[in-house]
Design goal:
The structure holds 2 protein chains of 2 kinds. Chain A is globular and about 55 Å long. Chain A has 5 helices and no strands. Chain A has one domain. Chain A is mostly helical. The two termini of chain A are 26 Å apart. The longest helix of chain A has 32 residues. Chain B is α/β, with parallel strands linked by helices. Chain B has a domain of 322 residues: Alkaline Phosphatase, subunit A (3-Layer(aba) Sandwich). In chain B, 32% of the residues lie in helices and 15% in strands. In chain B, helix 8 links the parallel strand 3 and strand 4. In chain B, helix 11 packs parallel to helix 12. Classes of the chains: A mainly alpha, B alpha/beta. Chains A and B meet through helix 1, helix 2 and helix 5 of A and helix 9 and helix 10 of B.
């Protein structure tokens, strides 16, 4: 804000949105790939709510994990904790949603409402992507 | 760690040479320029050591023997004893060097800022582009950003990471060459923040951090034996002898006449001396005590002294390695056909409760920087005591290269290089890092140095602090006795000049 003009801020926003779109595609592709290679009961059946749990718990875990990645490579113990705890939580929530119908319904309802954001997010991401490509080609 | 040519080409040497390949890739076709170049014109080589304070250099009277090799180099060069940077950290300091403008004109006032659009084409490379091939290299990523801004006038822009053992900055990838500044602001400041705050990239951010930290661990294990306080670090790790080797390679390949701007990171923090100089200044001379300034970071005396020792050791390490560059300049004949400038973008302070250069204080250690110039074929040492400023380098270089001095340049010709001693001259230094580039200055420090006097004005309404300080630098070089309270006539005269300058700076931004 102190030294960028509005147009430059818009370009930085474009970079961030283009990268966010790319990251979302990678994460979604990763989940889809996991659904293909894992037994169907693990992820493919009920992919919508299971994938949603993956993304939500994974996002929170990744955010918390950043705190431990400052200036030194974390210990193996810390790395394992940051992998095992999110996986255990994901397994727990998937199992809970599987056996407790109301939880599954709530998750699907929330996911359904959030998916409306895609109508804004994807076009902005695509426009941003073309802005970034254009600026780096010409 | 040093390479012995007699031992043949080692794997390490090969890797070093490979690291220089991008230089050839990034070199733009020079054929269009070749016909226009006058091979009789001298090269201009500007070598910048980042955060290099004259106060800590033995050549300038520092009691610790920090730079004996520099002292040998200046046996055939001109030493400017009263040279001051216009800015107090890399962005404003470097911008003033390459634009010849004061910080209030180029408006690159904050960390990460750039030169404002109306002055981007006003730079040292554009000033010499008609007569010289131009080359730029900056190890410091903030200085590199400024080179990207002037990229249009650079025939060769050596990538920032090409001399480092680690290369992890996204913006300098060839993919983003055409938009490196925006890529830098997006990737290095927001998407991947590398430990400073949270990454905007939720999943790939931590993964990237993890890989970068792992790479640092491996590189430190591989190259760190000679560095007891860790490898030198400019967001990417590097080894100082590799950087010197790389610079020599760059200079070996320049065509005559070239303007080469080489901006090295040492002795900028972190202060990581080689084993040979580790602990060299732990005992012996101690700096005088100075009162803690109200605007300082309130760093303890013990900590300041310790860090000063580390800084001095790092300067001595750098001097030991850069001696090979000095030797190369002599042996290659470049000292015969080139003007060689050695200087800095700003200084470094270890007193008054302050540490480093992220400071509003404008005492000598922050703004007094070395300037050494070697003329083609110069025999013998010359000493110039006139007051000079970093904004003087651009007009001087334009004059020496046979170009017209640009009308927009705010500096003067350096005495001994076309200029004359101007006894009544005032030079300014400014720090305004918390201000907007597009509004009048509100919280800032500005100093005016004239003859052997300095008046500093600290204007920080946000801290409820507005104060003038006035020092006689001849009688009181340590700036311990503030003469302002006794209202000497000269202080009042300089105050009028300074306030008039502030008014002039702010007028265009008043609504």
């Amino acid at each position: 804000m102190l030294y960028f003009r509005l147009a430059e801020m818009a370009v930085i926003f474009a970079y961030m949105m283009a990268f966010a779109l790319l990251e979302s595609l990678i994460v979604t592709a990763g989940l889809a790939f996991a659904a293909v290679i894992l037994p169907s009961k693990w992820l493919r059946d009920g992919f919508a709510y299971k994938g949603f749990i993956f993304v939500i718990v994974g996002s929170i875990a990744a955010y918390v994990f950043q705190k431990y990645l400052r200036y030194e490579f974390p210990s193996m113990q810390m790395l394992m904790l940051n992998l095992v705890i999110p996986l255990a939580l994901i397994a727990f929530f998937i199992a809970a949603a599987h056996v407790w119908g109301p939880l599954q319904k709530v998750l699907l309802d929330v996911q359904d409402r959030i998916s409306i954001m895609l109508y804004i997010y994807v076009p902005i991401g695509l426009v941003s992507f073309f802005v970034v490509v254009f600026r780096n080609l010409f | 760690m040093k390479t012995q040519l007699s031992q043949g080409l080692s794997r390490r040497d090969f890797l070093k040479l490979i690291s220089l390949t991008p230089i050839s890739v990034f070199a733009r076709p020079l054929s269009h320029l070749a016909a226009a170049l006058n091979t009789e014109a001298p090269n201009i080589i500007i070598i910048v050591f980042d955060a290099w304070s004259a106060s800590n250099v033995s050549l300038y009277g520092y009691p610790r023997q920090t730079m004996p090799n520099l002292e040998r180099f200046v046996e055939n060069a001109t030493v400017y004893h009263n040279h001051f940077s216009a800015g107090t950290f890399t962005v404003p300091g470097t911008s003033s060097l390459i634009t010849g403008l004061h910080p209030w004109s180029h408006r690159a006032l904050q960390l990460g800022a750039g030169i404002i659009a109306e002055h981007v084409r006003h730079n040292i490379f554009s000033a010499l582009s008609a007569t010289h091939s131009t080359l730029g290299y900056a190890q410091n990523q903030f200085a590199d950003q400024l080179l990207y801004q002037t990229d249009h006038y650079l025939d060769t822009h050596v990538p920032n990471g090409s001399l480092h053992v680690q290369n992890n900055l996204v913006y300098s990838a060839p993919l983003f060459n055409k938009d490196a500044r925006m890529a830098y602001a997006s990737f290095e400041y927001r998407i991947f923040r590398k430990g400073v705050g949270y990454d905007a990239s939720l999943f790939l951010g931590p993964l990237y951090r993890l890989l970068t930290l792992r790479d640092r661990l491996h590189k430190t294990a591989k190259y760190g034996d000679n560095y007891p306080r860790g490898l030198p670090d400019t967001a990417e790790l590097f080894v100082i002898n590799d950087v010197v080797d790389g610079a020599i390679e760059i200079l070996k390949n320049i065509q005559m006449p070239t303007l080469a701007y080489l901006h090295f990171h040492p002795p900028h923090d972190p202060y990581t001396p080689t084993r040979e100089f580790y602990g060299k200044f732990a005992k012996g001379w101690l700096p005088p005590d100075k009162p803690v300034h109200r605007l300082s970071g309130k760093i303890s005396k013990k900590s300041s002294r310790k860090q000063r020792g580390f800084y001095d050791e790092y300067i001595a390490s750098w001097d030991s390695e850069v001696a090979r560059l000095f030797q190369f300049l002599k042996e290659s004949g470049l000292t015969q056909n080139s003007y060689i400038f050695l200087t800095s973008d700003h200084g470094e302070i270890f007193e008054r409760g302050e540490l480093g250069h992220w400071t509003p204080l404008l005492y000598d250690p922050v703004v007094h920087v070395p300037l050494v110039v070697s003329r083609p074929g110069q025999k013998g040492r010359e000493d110039i005591h006139s007051i000079t400023s970093s904004v003087d380098i651009l007009p001087t270089v334009a004059h020496l290269s046979g170009n017209l001095i640009p009308a927009w340049a705010e500096g003067k010709l350096l005495p001994g290089l076309g200029g004359v001693d101007d006894e009544g001259r005032s030079v300014f230094s400014l720090d305004a890092k918390t201000n907007s580039s597009f509004t009048q200055l509100v919280n800032f420090s500005i100093s005016i140095t004239r003859d052997h006097y300095r008046l500093a004005y600290y204007h920080y309404p946000k801290n409820n602090y507005k104060q003038f300080e006035f020092y006689d630098l001849n009688a009181d070089p340590q700036e311990l006795h503030d003469l302002y309270p006794s209202s000497p006539t000269l202080a009042i005269e300089m105050k009028d000049e300074l306030l008039q300058k502030v008014e002039e700076i702010n007028r265009p931004y008043r609504r």
